[in-house]
User: Fold this.
Amino acid sequence: MALLKTVLKICSLAALCVSANVFSADFLVDTTINDAHNDAISSPGNAWKYEVNKMDVKSVGDLVTVDIYTNFVDYNGQYKAGRKDIVFGDLLISTDGADTPFNYAFVLSNGTRKYDDYDSSSHWNGKGSLTEINSTKTAKQYHNNSSSVQEGEIMADKKVGGNLGGDVSIFRQNTGSNYNNFDVISFSFNVNGIDAFQNASQLAFSWAMSCANDIVEGVVKVNQNGNRPPNNIPEPASVLLMLLALAFMVKVRSKKSDGFSA
Assistant:
């Protein structure tokens, strides 16, 4: 009986550890991607209106928040290029890290316009959603190859599947001079249950206005609650079943031994 009690204690402790592992897999990100200062491109005297300062990427549990600091908030839809308004671009994301195609985007279309065309000063109404994509649209493609826009990926093109939810909001800072009054476009979305995010070791982000006059982009490291176990280690549920089976076998054997000794 002493052996049985010892084994059961070990199994119970192991089961608690396995259970804790099941419920503590957090998605952890906390990185600032700084953009070069005064690198926006435009006609003389207007470049500062397109300036992007930085991108903050953070998560609380599985809720990811991406804040873009830019002067462009006050000028969304105020200018044209190639007969289209220059507007907010989508937040482009790669779950495979640097130098890989973007496979997710937080799309800022409200879904009411054909082909999600953003060509309207009122195209953005505070709505949007994370969605899987398999291609992007460049500034040149969107603005009909206008010579006044730059090269760069700025929007989702072809979506894969449905919308995955999320929120976007604007925070106006109202501090400092016009040349350094960076407002915030804040994207937030939940990645719980999305394997591409949960299995990622790093994520790449990119954002720009539709003319791509200034682009903030970079890679952030994902800390999956410490070290992720190798693929050849059994899943927690499988380990728990094995431990329970072992305890049952020891108990049965103990009962048989007691019967023989009687």
Summary: The first strand starts at residue 30 and ends at 34. Confidence is low (pLDDT under 50) at residues 13-25, 111-117, 226-233.
